[in-house]
Recover the amino acids of this structure.
């Protein structure tokens, strides 16, 4: 009974996002290579596209890399305390890349709902 209660309390925490650590210059495939190779499960993988909301919850920056099947690459640097939203198409692969030997920490969530996205940054004058 206690295990069931703990499980029920834990399920909402999992749905809020998944947390990862990158150490020693590690590169980690988040989604796109298939079952058993992806670090996360994108519940919208069967859709034309989805959004990955990625937050740097650590003290060092890391890189977000998106590769298409045509080997086109989009890259973004995520500084500590920053959040980025990356639009990912069905056939693309999402990676998080450590830039240093220090521990980088990230939180990632997936959505297809535009209302779940943070507002865009203000324009630069």
């Amino acid at each position: 009974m206690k295990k069931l209660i703990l499980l029920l309390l834990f399920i909402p925490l999992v749905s809020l996002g998944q947390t990862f650590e990158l150490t020693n210059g590690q590169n980690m495939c988040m989604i796109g290579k298939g079952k058993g190779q992806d670090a996360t499960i994108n519940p919208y993988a069967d859709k034309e596209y989805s959004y990955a909301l990625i937050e740097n919850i650590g003290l060092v920056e890391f890189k977000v890399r998106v590769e298409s099947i045509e080997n086109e690459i989009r890259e973004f640097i995520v500084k500590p305390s920053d959040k980025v939203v990356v639009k990912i198409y069905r056939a693309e692969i999402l990676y998080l890349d450590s830039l240093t030997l220090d521990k980088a920490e990230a939180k990632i969530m997936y959505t297809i709902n535009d209302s779940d996205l943070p507002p865009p940054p203000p324009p630069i004058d």
The first helix runs from residue 2 to 16. The first strand starts at residue 18 and ends at 22. DSSP finds one helix and eight strands in the chain.
